[in-house]
TrEMBL record:
<feature type="domain" description="Glucose-6-phosphate dehydrogenase C-terminal">
    <location>
        <begin position="178"/>
        <end position="428"/>
    </location>
</feature>
<dbReference type="InterPro" id="IPR019796">
    <property type="entry name" value="G6P_DH_AS"/>
</dbReference>
<feature type="binding site">
    <location>
        <position position="224"/>
    </location>
    <ligand>
        <name>substrate</name>
    </ligand>
</feature>
<keyword id="KW-0560">Oxidoreductase</keyword>
<dbReference type="InterPro" id="IPR001282">
    <property type="entry name" value="G6P_DH"/>
</dbReference>
<feature type="binding site">
    <location>
        <position position="205"/>
    </location>
    <ligand>
        <name>substrate</name>
    </ligand>
</feature>
<feature type="binding site">
    <location>
        <position position="43"/>
    </location>
    <ligand>
        <name>NADP(+)</name>
    </ligand>
</feature>
<protein>
    <recommendedName>
        <fullName>Glucose-6-phosphate 1-dehydrogenase</fullName>
        <ecNumber>1.1.1.49</ecNumber>
    </recommendedName>
</protein>
<dbReference type="InterPro" id="IPR022675">
    <property type="entry name" value="G6P_DH_C"/>
</dbReference>
<dbReference type="Pfam" id="PF00479">
    <property type="entry name" value="G6PD_N"/>
</dbReference>
<dbReference type="GO" id="GO:0006006">
    <property type="term" value="P:glucose metabolic process"/>
</dbReference>
<dbReference type="GO" id="GO:0050661">
    <property type="term" value="F:NADP binding"/>
</dbReference>
<feature type="binding site">
    <location>
        <position position="314"/>
    </location>
    <ligand>
        <name>substrate</name>
    </ligand>
</feature>
<feature type="active site" description="Proton acceptor">
    <location>
        <position position="229"/>
    </location>
</feature>
<dbReference type="GO" id="GO:0009051">
    <property type="term" value="P:pentose-phosphate shunt, oxidative branch"/>
</dbReference>
<dbReference type="InterPro" id="IPR036291">
    <property type="entry name" value="NAD(P)-bd_dom_sf"/>
</dbReference>
<keyword id="KW-0313">Glucose metabolism</keyword>
Length: 453
């Protein structure tokens, strides 16, 4: 079956930074071949050669452009003009591409308009097989806008044809969460409030907003990171075992977690890094948060009273995304080994930039002593890969082209996560931070588990 991938917004940062490199790697590795074509679509009136010249300037990886040009076209399309959609659809149909994915790498405000054009021009008919439409995140800017976008989309497409991206779900270690949990009896049997003290989910960045101030200032850390990536990680960590590993059954379990999660308002901390309001395209009086700390609980039997700490932000001390499971103290430790200081068991799932799993446990110190000290089992996931582990977008493209929706988010997941963010809405102004230390000092007073942060 000949496959076409039509990308709207292909003069944007995402196309050059992530999508072209991912597609190129898949071609190089033979995962997609001669029966595949990318239609790069944008409003700029320029030739294919001009587009490729611009791409050469913007794309950061080394590409054999002569080879890559066989797999990509550029088409100018005005998103308001139905004839432009029809012309492109006719071309794709005439060239016998009968498996078509439409990818919207545009601002979310354009999702309803482009969806309407796609539907009215006959690109995708409701319920049609081998036709699908992909939406980049964020899906909406709040609960109400997400609901309104989705209502429009359901007029034109079946839920099975809609793929909503959260690229974290394409990351190797995010996919590894369910394997680590359910393929290892030692973890699954102690995966509840009786053994686990607390869970920390963090995504720290060193960089500021760079050139994305225009987008970021309208959204902020809470909506950009917590509503999507952090809550998705939490759901995979907290959900019950699905009856089978099918897309819908996994999503059903994730939704149950979102439904029973509550945030503790009084513990929330919002911050804005010093100098943020001087960034390009950022409002000089902006009160957008670039840092969030929040604490949640899940009101079910398994997670009774276990705090889940979320932390994310820009201009912090390091780039690190991790999930940390803190196990409870072993009550017998000091009875049996009174001279020992406590060492908690800890499981760390390292998502980025390092990928792996670390487990901290107690052993006897070597030598003529009975002291106990911590040892760490450290599994490096990317060290085991023969080449680089695949980028998230490579995996997501493969799943998309093979009609596999597991790594994409279903509407009820999006709706519930926006409801959670709405419930956290706070009128408090973010505090301005000079450094990460400033934030840690405040968190210390809130008795957050500082040693991991
Ligand atoms: N960049 C990232 O790292 C990243 C990461 C995750 C998610 N995303 C999401 O991916 C999407 C695209 O992001 P981006 O960073 O690539 O944005 P961008 O650099 O601003 O590019 C957006 C694309 O949409 C087009 N566009 C904007 N307004 C338009 C309009 N009114 N009519 C027609 N075309 C229009 C732009 O065309 P012009 O070039 O002609 O303006 C460009 O091709 C966004 O939803 C974003 O949230 C991006």
């Amino acid at each position: 079956m000949k496959k076409a991938l039509v990308i709207f917004g292909s003069t944007g940062n995402l196309m050059y930074k992530k999508l072209i490199p991912a597609i190129y790697h898949l071609i190089q590795q033979g995962h997609i071949g001669e029966d595949f074509m990318v239609y790069a679509v944008a409003r700029r009136n320029q030739s294919f050669d001009d587009y490729i010249e611009e791409a050469k300037n913007q794309v950061k990886i080394s590409i054999d452009w002569t080879h890559f040009k066989q797999y990509i076209n550029y088409r100018v399309l005005n998103v308001d003009n139905i004839d432009d959609y029809r012309r492109l659809n006719d071309e794709i149909v005439n060239k016998s591409y009968n498996d078509v994915s439409i990818y919207l790498a545009t601002p979310p405000t354009l999702f309803p308009l482009i969806s309407k054009g796609i539907s009215q021009s006959g690109f995708i008919n409701k319920g049609e097989k081998h036709k699908r439409i992909v939406f980049e995140k964020p899906f909406g800017e709040d609960l109400e806008s997400a609901q309104s976008i989705n209502k429009e989309l359901w007029k034109y497409f079946d839920e099975t044809q809609i793929y909503r991206i959260d690229h974290y779900l394409g990351k190797e270690m995010i996919q590894n969460i369910l394997v680590v949990r359910f393929a290892n009896i030692i973890f699954e049997q102690s995966w509840d409030y009786r053994s686990i003290q607390a869970i920390t989910i963090l995504a720290k960045e060193e960089e500021g907003v760079l050139s994305r101030g225009g987008y970021y200032d309208k959204i902020g850390a809470l909506k950009d990171m917590l509503q999507s990536h952090l809550l998705q990680m939490a759901a995979l960590i907290l959900m019950d075992k699905p009856k089978e590993m099918t897309s819908d059954l996994i999503k059903d379990e994730k939704v149950k977690i979102f439904q029973s999660m509550t945030f503790d308002q009084k513990d929330m901390l919002l911050g804005q890094y010093k100098g943020y309001t001087d960034s390009e395209k950022v409002d000089r009086n902006s009160s957008t948060e670039t840092f969030v700390y929040a604490k949640a609980y899940v009101q079910n039997q398994r997670w009774h009273n276990v705090p889940i700490h979320f932390l994310t932000g820009k201009k912090l001390n390091e780039k690190r995304s991790e999930i940390i499971i803190h196990f409870k103290d072993n009550h017998d430790l000091n009875l049996l080994f009174p001279q020992s200081s406590k060492v908690e068991n800890k499981l760390v799932i390292k998502v980025s930039p390092k990928e792996g799993v670390e487990f901290k446990f107690n052993v006897k110190e070597p030598g003529l002593t009975n002291n106990i000290h911590p040892a760490i089992l450290d599994y490096c996931h990317n060290c085991k890969a023969l080449e680089n582990t695949p980028e998230a977008y490579e995996r997501l493209f493969m799943e998309l082209l093979n009609d596999q929706p597991t790594l994409f988010t279903r509407w009820d997941e999006i709706e519930k996560t926006w409801e959670l963010v709405k419930s956290m809405k706070s009128n408090s102004q973010p505090i301005v931070y000079n450094s990460y230390e400033d934030l840690l000092n405040i968190l210390e007073k809130k008795e957050v588990l500082i040693d991991d942060l």
